[in-house]
Structure prediction request, 357 residues.
Amino acid sequence: MINILADLLHKIAEFDREETYPYSPRPSLSGPERCIRQMDYYAQGHERKPFPGRFVTVLDDSSWHEALIKDWIRKSAFQIHSEQMGVQCGMVNGKPINGHIDGIITDILGTDRLLEIKAISHFGFLDVWNGHLPLDYITQTCLYLSGVKEINPEINQGLLFIKNKNQAQYLEILIRYDGETDSAILVNMILSTGEMKTLNQIIERITQTSIEKFEEIELFREEKKLHDRPYEKDSWRCQYCPYGELCWQGWEEEFEAMKIDAVLPDEFADTCRYFMETDGHIKDMEKEKEKLKAEIKKSLKENNARKAEAGEYIITNSLQSKKSINQEKIPPVILENAMETKIFEVLRIRLKKGEKS
Prediction:
């Protein structure tokens, strides 16, 4: 059967994608987790690898999630207005940082709050709920708040509203922005089930830090320099980066050119010692874990059970299946052509000869 749509739509997306916006400092690029070297390439006009069609559809999908969320808000007691209103969120070398907000919501008591909407994957969603706060989104929200305050000084709170694209769960992070100290006060985080986590965290210099990052990128652009790579080569950020191949060209030669006779400060030996102790503890605990696991499974087998109770615990031993490739069934020529060599860094620490741990 001829494939009608499955591979066609992504190809259409590749041809239909909008041209990349020229670089300019803006809130969507402001976060501390965004790779600064990637922004160097962007600012300096280096050619980027085109986004694959699938990625384009993912971005388009997120914009539709925003529209759907706003439609649901309109059916509630909240009012939403000022959608895509332009705001100025600071200055970089005399040039404004411009952005457009998702909107402002007004609750039944008449309180206005900035609304910033994001739609992310299931695993990213769980990561946020489990404590990995989305610093890029928080910084973007606070930059918008700094711009909105210039229009309406009474608005000092923002709602970072995040949707789980896979399961339609929601969570919101309430952020209060103190313009005088340039601080983000993370108040709480609420899940769509009603579960709440109190945060009470303060991030100081939230917008100034991003402005300084933009200024540094401008300086590097003038000097035609690049920042050091902030992430390892096997990082997912590098895998999805449109400048990934360009960024890592010549890396092996750079690595081989590094010194092999450097001497670090004596106090750094404490870090090495702690690393080795931690590594040893992990290995010992893994051995202990396997020993306990065998003991528990033996007890289940003796009782002819695959599920049992022990005090306050429920023990379940189940069968699972996973698919793997049997290389013996693959013709050698095909197997050889499919092989790829990946180079990665390996850190090892050992004691000098004659030294005692």
About this structure: Residues 8-215 form a domain with the Lambda Exonuclease; Chain A fold (CATH 3.90.320).
